[in-house]
Amino acid sequence: MFIDNKYKSWHDSIIAKAKVRNKKAIYEKHHIMPKCLGGNNEKSNIVKLTPKEHYIVHMLLCKFTFGYAKHKMLFAFNAMSSLIRKNRTYKLNSRIAEVLKLDFRKLLIGRKFKKETLLKMSKIRKGRKLSEEHKKKIGLAGLGRKFSSESIAKRVSKLKGKKRSQEFKNLISQKNKGKKRTPEQLIKLRAIFKTRKKGLFKLSEEHKRKIGLASIGRQTTLGTKALNKDGRNYFIKTSQVDKYLQMGYKLGMINRRVA
């Protein structure tokens, strides 16, 4: 797990000096033996380091570990580099820091998690509520992002045949209820419906029934009757139906576009 090299000597020297130091300053707690490598929270395993020392120690840990231990230290170092605190005023412009960050990125490419790890990640995220600001940042980060055809095909194949629970369906329904689409979204939707081929999307009988139930009492057609003329459908107020029938209109709808 550890390699006996100059980086380990530097690491041990910083820890040894920190143990006997009594100077008043701003310190951060550090586990001498990292918790992810079997360390504990006992006083003998904790030392106070300055923010700069803490950063250097985590950087050195990446240089004298190997195998899976090094993977863990690279993750810890990346977290240390990303964490912003008011007491950390030094700049992350070291050449070694850059090399380690590149190693961390290489580690993530094509990385596959174990089922146990995925379950743990799922449990941590379950029920987690994001702030509106966080949601906004996620939305802005994904704005204009384009997925490759291979990526889209993979997502489609994973979702194909997947059955959603009624609870999940109700949750989506509640979130979409009363949601207003932007003019740009409406234009896109109209373009999709105009260009789609006839018969490409087939609705199940259950889906048709749900659409019918959702339409009952809808204000747009409430108090009207459907009439047709010259291949087009119209919704006419009940009080004016006789007038339109005399003009050559017929009761009922035909399966063409709605006026």
Fold and architecture overview:
The chain is elongated. The chain is built from 11 helices and 5 strands, in the order H-E-E-H-H-H-H-H-H-H-H-H-E-E-H-E. The chain is 49% helix and 8% strand. Strands 4-3-5 form a 3-stranded antiparallel beta sheet. Among the domains are: 6-123, no CATH class; 218-259, no CATH class. Helix 3 (68-82) packs across helix 4 (95-108). The chain is mainly alpha-helical.
Strand order of the largest sheet: 4-3-5
Radius of gyration: 32 Å
Query: Based on DSSP secondary structure assignment, what is the total number of beta strands?
Result: 5
Distance linking N and C termini: 74 Å
Largest pleated sheet = 3 strands, antiparallel
Helix segment tally: 11
| SSE pattern, N- to C-terminal | HEEHHHHHHHHHEEHE
- Give the helix proportion (percent range): 40-55%
Q: What structural class is derived from the secondary structure elements?
A: mainly alpha
